[in-house]
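Weekly puzzle thread! Below is a chain. First person to post its structure in token form gets bragging rights.
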Amino acid sequence: MSDPNAVFQNAYYVGNNFNAILYGVELVLYFASVWLILQARGRTSKRSDKLFLFFSTGLLLMITIYVAVQAVFGQEMWIVNANYPGGSGQYLADNAAVWYQTLGSAASVVLNLMSDGLLIYRTYVVWSDWRVAIFPSILYLGTAALGILTCYTSGVPNSDFFLGKAADIALSYSSVVIGLNFTCSMLICGRILWVAKRMEATLGREVSKTYTGAASLIVESMLPYTCFGIAYVVTLGINSPLSIFFLSVYVMFTCVSPQMIILRVLMGRGWTREAATSGAIPRFTHPSSAGASTTRITYGTDGTAINLRSFTKADTSSPDLEMDTKI
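Winning reply:
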């Protein structure tokens, strides 16, 4: 399949199918998050729960717009206008700047801004130091400006997101976004691995991996979001027709990855500022009660990082782990 248009059309089709699959994943994550928020209402509900609810709903709304636009454009190109003069390639060239495609591009830019804002905040939470967020915040301002410019240039009549000036600006925008993603992901991964060594020395691998294991690394750093973003920028930079596929998956993880973080925090497994403050060797206290003990582990003087409840001598292989979810 050497025809670039044929490769592009197939990549677009496969990308739309992945959109549908990952949209289903997003719906599951969203409703699971809403259920946890509603369960906590009236008992342990926090102001952050309302913020999570509004943020998650905003993510779902933006990704719904994007998925619908991609599906509608594919239907128009392959079915409604199947006999378009010049074929699907010519239809794409003539209609790439149609108004609803511009709407989809705007939705993806808003998604990026929301997800990157959360990623910068999580970087600050994991490090518990505002200075690490300075450089990513500067990049964030650059992505906002370039994102608006990308929407404008790709929405001008007869323009094409993948060709000409619009493609150059889109490449610049995407490169800055991926630079921000990569910086934050590496900062978060590095911090988690550093804390993991300290925790394992005291608690052992089985206990510490709940907060410093592979799942924590992947979710907290939004690693899928960053990896597919890098793949998209590379393919866009070399003008590969496969770029549309990686763009589709990348945009979907722009929504799925932050929703995974929100769900993890609501489940009590997300990193907090207290948990990340590990400047001192963990201290242990053992208040006793009838038949059970509670171990409190704190770092520095900021408060409790982890509570190990029902940690009895009879069953030490599966302690019940809880982490404060205030962020």
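Puzzle host: Confirmed. Bonus trivia for everyone else. The CA atoms of residues 264 and 270 lie 5 Å apart.
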